[in-house]
Fold this sequence. Notes:
Layout: H1 4-19, E1 31-37, H2 43-58, E2 65-71, H3 79-85, E3 102-108, H4 116-119, E4 130-133
Parallel strand pairs: 1-2, 1-4, 2-3
Helix pairs in contact: 1-2
Amino acid sequence: AGGSRHLHQLQSILGHVRKSGMIPTADDEIEQSVIEMGAGRGMLGLVTASAIGAAQTQNTSSSKVKLYLVERSGTRGKAETKIRTATGDASQDNDSLRLDRVEVSRIKCDLAHVHMSTALPFLTKKLEKSRSIV
Length: 134
C-alpha cells in the first residue's frame, strides 16, 4: 500500500470510520457502498470495503460491498489486482478484512466532470436498507 507510513494512515482512517459507526455491527442488514473519489491505487476504499465485508460476514449478509473507485487515470497494479489475486476463503485466520466480499467498479473520469447522480444512480434513491461512504 505504499510503505509503513501509508499503512499507519490507512489504519488510522479505518479506525475513525469504525468509531463513527460507518461500519455495520453484527445486527445491521443494510447494503453498503464505498465511493473513493480521486482513488489512485484505491487502497483506502479497498481496506474500508473489505472491513465492511468482514462485518457483513458476521451477520450472514449475502450481498457484497460495492466499491466505486473514481479516477482519471487507468489502472496499474491497483485495488482490482488485489481482489483478483485474493484467495477469498471464508475460513481465513484474519476475518477483519474480507476481499472476497467486495465488488469493484472503477469509473474513469476527471473529478471535474463527475455528475454523481448519473455515474452512481443509487445515490439519488431513498433506500432504507442501504448506506454509502463517500
